[in-house]
Design a protein that fits this description.
Layout lengths: L16 H24 L20 H7 L1 E2 L2 E2 L19 E4 L9 H18 L14 E2 L5 E3 L4 E3 L4 E2 L6 E6 L3 E5 L11 E2 L5 E6 L2 H8 L2 E5 L5 E10 L2 E10 L15 H4 E7 L3 H14 L5 E5 L12 E5 L6 H10 L5 E4 L4 E2 L6 H10 L4 E6 L5 E7 L6 E7 L3 E3 L2 E7 L1 E2 L3 E4 H7 L11 H7 L5 E11 L4 H4 L4 H10 L3 H14 L2 E6 L1
Parallel strand pairs: 5-14, 15-16, 15-18, 16-17, 20-27, 22-28
Antiparallel strand pairs: 1-2, 3-28, 4-7, 6-12, 8-11, 8-13, 9-12, 10-11, 13-14, 18-26, 19-27, 20-26, 21-22, 21-25, 23-24, 24-27
Length: about 525
């Protein structure tokens, strides 16, 4: 049939040809839209709902251990650590169950004392529960980052309601602060808001715009002085509820060090060391330092029985009771530092052309690290510390050699948990941890155990300090001074027991493993 003969005629369905074409076009567009939405997942597919008893099982304990292990340690935090009973694994990892090293006559009493001290510690270092947001809530609110100084007032950001209701009743409740609004509602009605200056604040209005205007100008005032606490604000409307964390924190007073107009290394760094029965080694160290850093200050903590005065205008020598101890000497030396950084060295090290303090300064100045170690005679030694939470018996600490990861921008440096006795550190940051003076003989790792979670530690292999050769004739010598020094340096069974007992109580550990 000639298409022109259709003009003015009706089809059996009552539609003309143009309407037919228009209808086909609409169906085609709708079909394309459906397929596109389905492709994007915007149109749900029919799914089979599993009965509760037919839901797939969780991983077994063994599967969890293999799935979330790091350096042979299960670090899935929802499980408590369990100390192996003995050395285990193909790599023969040493295991120290600390309760075995306690005095049996005092073990139970010590455990009770530790529990009491831990409860006191927890009050000062509190942790807070997890906040879970309800699904599809019409409430808008901040979930993180709200901070106020003690007794100060802030605007609470981000409060709003997005719901179509006949009347809105919104409540804010706090425990450590009070509420108000910058909006003067008296010209409207006295009943719109109630609870100004109180811990419970209520807004009641049928006007959503007015409600959100008031919410956007809500103030919170801290009324309890505490330098570090947390208030949880409850924000409710009808059956909807939200929790808003507010950190009440007094930022610590800023302390800056002036490096001087010329930015000389001696204005930034002080060298510190501790000496006992080795004046010959100490003098060799100082002589090597003066070859490369003639004006840098050196602080010496000295607990010799027969003392010698070091003749150097830039050496400060502090005398201690004889054999006072390794960490006591570190505390004394670092406490006298007046520069931003200190460089710790042993008294038998030697500076060489590769001992570039400036490189270590650059690392600390360019990163958020607190401590950066280096290499001793080419030995780039570092280790990791991994802490597993435990129950009533205490936590588990694992020592593993190596590092966590590289430090961006410094290809020769890594992030780690502990380093050798040659390191540059922020003076204030290290003083905040300190060196336990109970450790008066062989100790090093113990400082980094105390610093875990407090200091960020790195290590760089491209800065090297030399090490004076041991005098082999002294090792078997009957010389009184040599024998006395060796007695101080020997890590006896009594020393090991004392340190492990200290870890049990002070660090609340149940076991320590090392590989």
């Amino acid at each position: 049939m000639n298409m022109f003969l259709l003009k003015g005629k009706r089809t059996c369905s009552g539609f003309g040809p143009r309407k037919w074409l228009f209808g086909i076009l609409i169906v085609f567009i709708a079909g394309c839209a459906f397929l596109q939405h389905k492709k994007k997942g915007l149109i749900g597919r029919a799914t089979t709902q599993h009965p509760q008893e037919q839901l797939p099982p969780l991983y077994s304990g063994e599967e969890l251990r293999s799935k979330f292990s790091y350096s042979d340690i299960n670090l899935y935090q929802n499980s408590q650590c369990v100390c192996p009973t003995e050395t285990w694994g193909p790599r023969r990892i040493e295991v120290f169950n600390l309760k075995k090293y306690l005095n049996p006559n005092d073990a139970e009493a010590m455990k009770a004392r530790r529990k009491k001290e831990y409860e006191h510690y927890s009050k000062r270092h509190h942790s807070h529960g997890i906040l879970i947001a309800a699904p599809n809530s019409p409430l808008g609110y901040p979930t993180h980052g709200v901070q106020v100084k003690p007794l100060h007032t802030i605007l609470l950001p981000g409060l709003q309601v997005n719901a179509d209701l006949r009347n809105y009743v919104v409540t804010l409740e706090a425990s450590l602060g009070t509420f108000d609004t910058l909006v003067n509602t008296l010209d409207i009605s006295e009943n719109v808001v109630s609870g100004r200056g109180e811990k419970r604040f209520v807004i009641s209005t049928p006007d959503q715009n007015l409600l959100n205007h008031i919410l956007s100008h809500i103030t919170y005032t801290s009324n309890v002085y505490d330098i570090d606490s947390l208030d949880i604000i409850t924000f409710t409307m009808d059956q909807h509820e939200a929790k808003i964390p507010v950190s009440i924190r007094q930022p610590p007073m800023i302390r800056l060090y002036d490096p001087g107009a010329e930015q000389k290394i001696q204005s930034l760094v002080t060298i510190t060391t501790k000496t006992l029965l080795r004046y010959d080694k100490l003098k060799a160290l100082i002589s090597s330092i003066r070859q490369y850093y003639p004006e840098i200050k050196i602080i010496v903590a000295d607990d010799n029985n027969v003392t010698e005065k070091i003749e150097d205008d830039n050496v400060e020598q502090y005398f201690m009771p004889f054999g006072k101890g390794w960490f006591a000497g570190r505390n004394l030396a670092v406490s006298q530092v007046t520069t931003k950084y200190f460089l710790w060295v042993d008294d038998d090290f030697l500076f060489t052309k590769d001992t570039k303090i400036e490189k270590l300064v650059d690392v600390l100045e360019s990163t958020n690290l607190d401590v950066v170690g280096a290499s001793v005679d080419g030995n780039h030694f570092s280790f990791r510390l991994l802490l597993q939470e435990g129950g009533e018996e205490g936590d588990c600490l694992h020592w593993r050699g190596g590092s966590y990861q590289e430090i961006e921008g410094f290809p020769k440096c890594v992030l780690t948990g502990g380093v050798v006795n040659f390191f540059l550190a922020h003076t204030n940051r290290v003083l905040s941890v300190g060196f336990d003076p109970k450790l008066n003989r062989v100790a090093h790792t113990e400082f980094f155990v105390d610093a875990l979670g407090r200091l960020r530690v790195g290590s760089c292999s491209d800065v090297v300090v030399g090490h004076q050769k041991k005098d082999l004739s002294v090792l078997g010598s009957k010389d009184e001074k040599a024998r006395m020094y060796n007695s101080f340096r020997t890590n006896t069974n009594e020393q090991v027991t004392m340190k492990l007992t200290l870890h049990y109580f002070k660090n609340r550990l149940s076991c320590f493993t090392k590989h």
